[in-house]
Design brief:
The protein has two domains: 90 residues, Roll (PH-domain like); 50 residues. The protein starts with 6 loop residues before the first strand and ends with a helix. The chain has 156 residues and is an alpha+beta fold.
């Protein structure tokens, strides 16, 4: 069995269009548009039309904003650190988070995101494309941070 040396992933993938949390809130807003337009016009037809117009405008504006901003994040987790490269248009920002500095991490497998908190109280946001990516990251991170937690328990 081969030992994994590092894990890498890129966010968002080309096939990726909406975040799960975004879909949830847009659905909530679409329902609100439907209900308010139904009470305003007392017609199913106008309610459906206004809801569809809202969804069409949202999808179109979201697509245009994504194309205009050109945001991309690359992650690489190794045995010693996590490297994060954020690209926005022509700006590139690199961060390196050493695993020995991580004091807390939280991952959300439903909304496919999370964060790492370092001992300098800096929060590093993480984004994933699939549930498999987040599980692979979590398992790799647990293996790397496990010896650290065993040492702390032995000292107590």
């Amino acid at each position: 069995m081969a030992v994994t040396v590092s894990i890498t992933w890129k966010f968002p993938e080309k096939k990726f269009f909406f975040l799960k949390i975004e879909v949830f809130f847009v659905a909530l807003l679409a329902l609100l548009v439907f209900v308010l337009s139904f009470f305003q016009f007392e017609s199913w037809f106008y309610s459906i039309v206004f809801t569809l117009v809202f969804l069409l405008l949202y999808v179109l504006s979201s697509y245009l904003i994504q194309k205009w901003r050109e945001v991309e994040e690359r992650y690489k987790l190794t045995k010693s650190h996590l490297e994060i490269i954020r690209k926005k248009k022509n700006k590139v920002k690199k961060e390196k988070v050493f695993l020995k500095d991580i004091i807390h991490h939280k991952l959300d497998k439903f909304f496919l995101g999370g964060y790492l908190l370092t001992n300098k109280k800096k929060k590093h946001l993480l984004f994933f494309n699939t549930k498999e990516e987040i599980e692979k990251f979590e398992n790799f991170l647990k293996k790397l941070l496990e010896p650290k937690s065993k040492i702390i328990k032995k000292k107590e």
